[in-house]
Write a structure and sequence with these properties.
The chain is of the alpha/beta class. The chain has eight helices and eight strands.
């Protein structure tokens, strides 16, 4: 029995048919290690999503043995999922995209399938002007209803500018990382290691946080 309910499958098939015009690659890194809390479940989710549209293709790699691919995509831990279109946009999910974060996965796939981020035109223009490296880490939990807003905004920015890389990180699956970045509430967004904020900010305020971080850097 699949994880998705039949009515949800039908809804997603319909939505994907409207939005996905270009091939989408789901590039997934898993491990057979006992340390991987949700590797099996994450792969099951992705396999079901792949079945929803002919232009979605799932590629599965082993974090421990497929070192060339791990290096190519800059994968640091597992499970990890990259959503790729005509190029690698720097969109990553570390941990299971379940609960509220399933919507982030689905909407990212639709954006990549359309070939453009769902942002206001003025925001896209401002994001494109960023000419320095930006690495965003967005700590989330599956039960957080506000977290997808932060994840989606960060992933859209990554689509809009190749200087921006954006990682969703499921806080419960990576407790040592959460402790290192003092994650006590989610969403917590870390910008280039040095600046952070909490909460789901509107895209213009999120952008301002990045610009302030670059000034400080």
């Amino acid at each position: 029995m699949g994880l998705l309910k039949e009515e949800d499958r039908k809804y997603l098939i319909d939505e994907f048919s409207k939005h996905i015009k270009n091939p989408v690659k789901i590039i997934h890194f898993t491990s057979e290690s006992n340390e991987c809390m949700y590797c099996k479940e994450t792969m099951e989710i992705l396999k079901e999503v792949e079945e929803l549209h002919d232009l979605i293709t799932l590629y599965i790699y082993n974090f421990d043995t497929d070192k060339d691919m791990v290096e190519k995509y800059g994968i640091e831990m597992f499970p990890a999922t990259v959503i790729e279109g005509e190029k690698d946009y720097g969109i990553k999910f570390y941990g299971i995209p379940a609960g509220y974060e399933f919507s982030s996965l689905i909407e990212d796939i639709m954006d990549v399938g359309e070939g453009k981020p769902d942002l206001k035109e003025e925001t896209v223009n401002a994001v494109k002007d960023i000419n320095k490296p930006v690495h965003l880490k967005i700590f989330v939990t599956p039960s957080c209803p506000y977290c997808p807003i932060a994840v989606r905004t960060a992933h859209k920015f990554a689509m809009a500018n190749e200087n921006i890389k954006s990682d969703m990180i499921e806080a419960n699956e990576f407790p040592e990382l959460s402790q290192r970045y003092n994650v006590y509430a989610v969403p917590r967004v870390v910008i280039n290691e040095d600046r952070y904020f909490e909460g789901a900010l509107p895209e213009n305020q999120f952008l301002n946080e990045i610009l302030e971080a670059l000034k400080e850097g």
